[in-house]
Amino acid sequence: MEQVMDNPNPNIIDVTAENFMAEVIEKSKQIPVLLDFWADWCEPCKNLTPLLHGIIEKHPGALVLAKVNTDQEQMLAQQMGIQSLPTVALLKDGQIVDNFMGVKPESEILSWLAPHVELNAETPEPQVDHNIQALIDAGQYEAALTALVALPAEQAVWQTIEVHLLMDNVDAAQKMFDGLTEEQLNMPQADELKSKLQLAAVKGEGDLAEIKQQIARGEVEPGVLALLDLLQKDRSDADVRQLLIASFGLLGDPKLAAQYRRRMGSLLN
Predict the structure, then answer these.
(1) Which of 19, 63, 82, 171 has its CA 20 to 30 A from that of 231?
(2) Can 45 be counted among the known catalytic residues?
(3) What are the φ/ψ torsions at residue 34 (nearest 5 degrees)?
(4) What is the residue extent of each domain of the chain?
């Protein structure tokens, strides 16, 4: 599939040799520019591109993504000394300040950017109808769903998925999640709901069921600690491992999640 497409986001641009000076060098004197060298045949490029687009969407105004199709701009790639794809460079004040090759997870890309770019731009918060939230908090889920139907779909989607999960309508929640737009999937609440769907999909009895309920109530870290204790007793329990993985995304702290992932890994080694 060809990667070049119309970019509705003005901070994502396609670069050629003709506009390189204006759109990369000069623009980097006003705002950091993330320069991405890619090609249609490059499979790792196809994995990296959505991550870079997502970072631009989540941090509007923080930086620009300039994309170079090396098949079409071979001379430009040669002039820049590109030897492998994908290659990503960061420019500020007309100069390359750092670069990397290959694919990195989003968390590593953000850490790589952090010393050079302010990534504290506000991310749009989900629209929440507080009257409906009061119904949800009171456990009046059917009434909440009825009220949500009357709202615009884009406004209602997050609370509707939450209500379906609270009602244990996992299939309905998953169907709605699968219908989210690319823009919605780039929002942080989508990551949280994905973890909640993974959590809901785990079947468990006894202690595991109680821990699952504990995590669903928002007591995530105590639940993770309890799961690690269970995993230490029985490393072959697939449900415990699956529940742990789902729980990491609900901790709300990437560093804490990474710490517990390492503890899980040490138990399994």
Answers:
(1) 171
(2) yes
(3) -95, 115
(4) 12-113, 127-183, 202-269
